[in-house]
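Summary for the steering committee. One of the milestones for this cycle was to obtain a three-dimensional model of the protein with iron/sulfur cluster bound, which we needed before selecting residues for the alanine scan. The sequence and ligand used are listed below.
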Amino acid sequence: METKSQLLAILHTIQQKYGYISNENMQKIANQLDIHPVEVYSVVSFYEFFSTKKMGKTVIRVSGCMSNEIAGNAKVIKAFEKKLKIKCGQTTKDGKFTLLKASCLGMCDKPVAIMLNNNLIGNVTEKDVNKILKVDTKLKQKSCYVESLNKKGVSFSQTGKVIFSDYKPLSGLKKAIKLGGEKTIKEVRSSNIKGRGGAGFTTGDKWQFASEAYGENKYIICNADEGEPGTFKDRILITNYAHLIIEGMTIAGHAIGAEKGYVYLRYRYINLKPYLEKAIANFKKQKALGKNILGSGFNFDIEIKIGAGAYICGEETALIESMEGQRGEPRNKPPFPANSGYYGQPTVINNVETLCAVSHILAKGAKWFKKFGTEKSSGTKVLSISGDCKKPGVYEVEFGTTINQILKLAKATNTKAVQVGGASGVCIKKGEFNRKIAFEDVPTGGAITIFNNNRNITNVAQNFLQFFEEESCGQCSPCREGMPVLLDGLKDLKKGKCNKNYLHSLISLTETMRNSSKCGLGQTAPNIFVDLVTKFKKDYKLSKTVRKEEEVNV
Ligand SMILES: Cc1cc2nc3c(=O)[nH]c(=O)nc-3n(C[C@H](O)[C@H](O)[C@H](O)COP(=O)(O)O)c2cc1C
Ligand code: SF4
């Protein structure tokens, strides 16, 4: 009997087959899963990759994030519009093409990036548009970069004093089995590794809570929903180091007593699924996954679940909701997933990079790991660097590396500002570039977007706020209602129509959003607005005129 947790997979099949999900099919799915059709509709309407309107046979999504804006995505969209004789958001009359502007495709190192049905294509210029439309079934003929055709994957831009370059397969898992669960958790705690997904919670503590929590079943989930604008390091880790992810998950499963793991992969990375499948198959062949792993009596298996295009599903409780076949709406916390996660059972959720690092920690020891980084931030950080620089890419650096050093690595010049941590992160201005990437200074999930002196930060803020407005799940009012008000305020600020009082009311709104939004999205979305008005005062001009409502108050 199928359960609701299969709803997203069923909807993907229907969407691929018919190009949309009809009322009739929603009713059929509801009958099949024994749920109300409204439940099916509420899920269909939540995710970007499901639609109730027929899409073209070929759907073109152009990346809309800041690095792609800088690289000229507007010109590429215009070229597609001209060739297809439609506006962005429309489908051609013959039903062959739909053109859409999407949020970040995780390809900021290769802008302008597009998604052509399920293929990620980078380095696209307006000159490539004709070719792309002609040979959409023969991607190999294109001069652009096609991620899934790149057998080896893009490698790190910098090697050297990094931990990823040297690993003996299965050495971490063998050590973990030898140590047993308790000592494995002790080793991970002693390494002081903190989560690499952004929130920076201590991994060993999370594992300890889940191991102590009561549950009939326990689960390990790898968060591969990478959706923060400017982040693409997990894409590279999946293509190059899938075996480290699978090994890290198996180590975690053994440590907390879980027998089942899931990788939640964002839909935009659907064509990277074979990298994970291959690693899983290899592990099974070596008896490192499945029943009686390496003769230890421990059973563990891994399944891949595919998202459907919603940034909020990167938030761990929204991700669990999505895995259960629901809208990706964050839950109230506590309880935290370590106590009550997937179907109410103790669940550890870790980022792709955290799980890779854990394999190294077990193989080489906590002491070795702590040799890298700072006292409070042990190990290395994998960064996604893009924007105004000559060498965008994925770099592994030790914690404690300064922004100045990063700019040097990426060959960036005339830098005005660096956005660290993606749209929800912090904008560092020139003069602060000696600050360090570390949990105690500038923490980050890994996105570094560089802006040169030609950029105006009001445009950056507009791009980010539009993204958050679209991605808010709408569950709580400070985030749902605050975002459009903030965005309108920003547009007025850009036009010179915002006076001092109006600006103060907007700043007070950012405080309300930070303090009373339910999850990290609403709490961090106003960051860029605050950075803009406090650090980049030259990028906007305040109006001296009194606004109508103020006249009324007077
Ligand atoms: C809006 C939002 C989006 C997030 N997106 C991701 C993501 O794409 N990948 C990720 O690992 N963590 C993401 N997180 C953080 C997760 O909630 C969670 O903290 C993380 O997966 C835990 O893994 P870690 O401890 O290994 O970092 C997001 C959080 C929020 C609030
Ligand atoms: S803060 Fe925004 S994204 Fe988070 S639960 Fe509230 S409405 Fe949803």
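Key point for the committee: The longest helix spans residues 233-256.
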